[in-house]
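User: I'm curious what two different proteins look like when written out as structure tokens. Can you demonstrate?

Assistant: Sure. I'll show them one after the other, since each token string lines up with its own sequence. Here's the first protein:
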Amino acid sequence: MAAPAIRDGAPTPAACEALGFPKPDDGRDVYSRRGRRVGGAMYAPPAMAMPPAPPPAPFPAPKAAPMQEMAVTGMARVSPYMPGPAAGDVNTERYPNAQANPIKQTAQEPVSTFSVDVDTAAYANVRRFLNDGQSPPRDAVRVEELINYFDYGYAKPTDPQVPFKPFVAVTPSPWSADRQIVHIGLQGYDIPRAQQPPLNLVFLIDTSGSMSDEKKLPLARKALNLLVDQLRPQDRVSMVAYAGSAGAVLAPTSGREKLKMRCALGALESGGSTAGGQGLALAYDLAVQNFDAKAVNRVILMTDGDFNVGVADPSKLTDFVAAKRKTGVYLSVYGLGEGNYNDTLMQALAQNGNGTAGYIDTLNEARKSFRDDFSGSLFPIADDVKIQVEFNPKAVSEYRLIGYETRLLNREDFNNDQVDAGEVGSGTSVTALYEVTPVGARASSDPLRYSAPAPRAVAASGEIAFLKIRYKLPGGQASKLIERPIGPADTYARLDQAPEPTRWALAVAGFGQKLRGDPWVASSFGWASVGDLAQGARGADPYGLRAEFVQLARAAGETKTVNESGN
């Protein structure tokens, strides 16, 4: 009898060679942890039928040498086109230039509307700067992503058809006298493991020269191996790598065959320039070829975002991704590395691809993203999730939304199901904070000489605001609505009486606003205040994430801002 096929195990040279992934001609061991990976070769198993090249539109072929295939023990090897760029001495990192939300006058503009954001990239990136002893650029600090990095333990919904359960608390602001914070939390439905649909994933991996650093391609391999650990027999994974030109390196492979996936990841090497547009086109093409209407169909991009060959214009790339999401294939983006990290492009791709954006700075962050948060990263429970809050002019004279600057929507967009908004994954929570000025408290602006018309009365006496949540079930076309008033029953007279989730969210929000230098945080609310507030709300901390935050707040107090340091 033939020996049973080995489906998983350590990707040793012998095991990988048996699966069609031999060592390079020079005998280097590209699979073991001792092997050094240099150059730019990519590999494809012999049984793979290469998909057709993507059409020239919307991405014209980059001006680079064609892929050279050489017969090597029955498999195709892709040779490097050109030496990869050296690790940059010049910092070219790019971040969205989003100004902090202004204060709105309730009498003139009572309605606030935004798309939810469950991304966490900004938190891990900020942590990277602080751990290196540097203050992050202000544009790198998206306060809502810092807040949403943490689990708040909100009560969980039980009906997948109504996948959100709102949490609301109103409490005094810790950094601004006479103002209040309206804390809004949404807890998403957690799909039981046995009911999670199959996965049709395409790993799209940047193997260009700029990815040679240990914190880039080597860390991406380790991260994706953690994801491979979670796969089930019904799941499928394909792989595409790009350097100079894009190439498929693994045919759709069952979750049973984890060893083959590990060998494919181990054989990837960095070298060449970054043909990101062509890589995206090929990855989507492969996902569509293997599309399963009953599965989660998703491209997972691992890159530093330094697209430098072919189409690198963010607007053209995002237009392409926005068109492709209509096929039912979503895009999640994970950034790596430093020096040339293009956060602007990463955010645009994720937002337009109906996916999430993360940043992998350490192996621990990879574990959080691809092991601890596996369900939330991959299994959507709702699409196009929007929040709208109408403030009562009789109770609130002015307000400002803390964060979500790149997610703002027009008031009329809330009811328009054609307007794209954020995706939320299984078991994921969303948190938003408004700072409001109660009527009678000192406002930020002088009263008008010519008063506005008196606001209409509200039905429920004492209401502060009215909350609306609109969402679509995955694959749905028509949105559904959840709504509730915010009133006296949600209000806490003192901050120390507020629930633990509220106090923790305020500590993180204060941290982010201070890093940004936002003008609404009083100078008396210093880094010690952030630490004290966080310490009093740490609660259960099984993974040490909250303890780490307290240390980051301390580190932030010891660094200078970008403007102060002159960087």
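Here's a second, unrelated protein for contrast:
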Amino acid sequence: MSTTVAGLLQVGTLVVILAAVYVPLGDHMARVYTGERDLGVERMLYRLARVDPRRQQSWVGYVLAVLGFSAVCFVVLYAIQRMQGALPLSDGKAGVSPAMAFNTAISFVTNTNWQSYSPEIVMTNLTQMTGLAVQNFVSAAVGMAVAIALVRGIVNRRATGEIGNFWVDLVRGVIRILLPLSIIVATLLLSQGVVQSWHSGFAWTTTDGAEVRSVIGPFASQEAIKELGTNGGGTLSANSAHPFSNPTPFSNLVEILALLVIPVCLTRTYGTLVRDRRQGLTLLGVMAGIWAIMLTAVWIFESHPSGAASAAAGAMMEGKEVRFGIPGSALFAVSTTGTSTGAVNSAHDSFSAGGGGTVLWNMLLGEVAPGGVGSGLYGILAMAMITVFVGGLLVGRSPTFLGKRIGQPEMTTAALYVLVMPALVLAGTAISVILTATGEAQGNSGEPGTPGAIHGFSEVLYAYASAANNNGSAFGGLTVTDDWFQASLGVTMLLGRFVPIVLVLALAGLLARQRPRGTVDESAAESAGVTGTGPTGLAGPGRGRAVLEATPAESVARPEALSALPTHGFLYGSLLMATIVLVAGLTFFPAMALGPIAEALL
């Protein structure tokens, strides 16, 4: 069987599995966030935290809860790292330095999982389990909670301004979604030989008689939530390329499936919650279209050798595992940069100029194909609202989104959301490349205009694109252990995560204070028994089921609904995709021309 056929079978298998779980998992997540009953363990946690699960929050209250919780997580994780040398299971490792602990704490709290260190050398197993793995769960749950809060703002018909309860969303996301899926994925990985051990390592003798030591630890459990939560921080420097974490082509497929499954299925959740499944399918189509184009581009670039060594190997195999090959490496690279994950099974710095530029571009699109857990959904919804506004102006239709008017406050908030990431990327890159110390940190440098200097610029651009998009992957040729990179990348990750979250929740609040402009048949809702909302701020699954099945969000009846631009179907999906590409193109083309494009043309 040829490599191409094997790769196509892998892609086909992945798509078939995603299609099979799309409906059940998507609807399950919808029930999780709309259910009225709490599990026993959830009630216990609410009592311990003195949280009233029936209390609804405004967007301001929701923001304060998110920021307060994240601040506490940062302090706890920072303290664990600094004190790890005095804690059990230290294995002789000292506490992490202040700058590195600061950067790492921000990285994992923001769901970025950028690593400026070698995990097997710096972090103890206790820090990995009680610090980093815990953040893998809760930071992912925060992203899902924010996405659901925005959906609540869209579907709120009573103009109350309430968007749910953050603490309920957080707990349910961890206990009912992330934890069960992690157990399934970890079990599959264990069956393939992924290491799961309480020991820190073992000694063995090489064939020439040398004594060496291999690091082991709780890899399978952390690999599972690393991918499911679109986190990316590995327990080994080689990340998901290491055979202890990803030993077989099947485990590679499982990990790619894990990092895609929740972001993809959240589009079904969205369609269910807004009572029009066409909405979710349209978003899914846009995500899938971008993902497929990026995958095709990387696969083609990496399959065509450039240079004598690559020509001898028959492909661009530098930095890639032979057991995965070009298809498995390209599939992983596109999926991880498109989902804000950052895990890697190959060295992105060793990709061809075209292949490396494509995965960089994948992040610069805003990571909405399909994006991170939660962040992908609220990111593409912000772009969808901008598309409605632009499309409405083009065709003379009212700028409304599922019955909610997109006026000046809503557009300002959405536009600010879109501008945050480019400002952080371009400012961070510009400042860094003029610093003398940056040249010393670059694995590639040289006279201006040479391939080394151009790739060195790409390394810096990739670093800030990864940090601002909360991705976490890197062009490994850039050394980022000095105080400038630790601090600047840490601040970039912090602002890149929480400023957009604040803006998304503000947008949710603006929408939640509006009554729909006739796009939901309220008489049908009342006849179905949906006269209010459940404790989560959305119609409960029992009371709302008739409306979910019978009342699409744009099926109705008031005259102003007829003047609204439809937000589903091929035409709108094409306009949304064009808007995403156009915004990124206008913003980043000059920077890309100075880096990957120039390198590819040499």
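A detail about the second structure: The CA atoms of residues 100 and 486 lie 7 Å apart.
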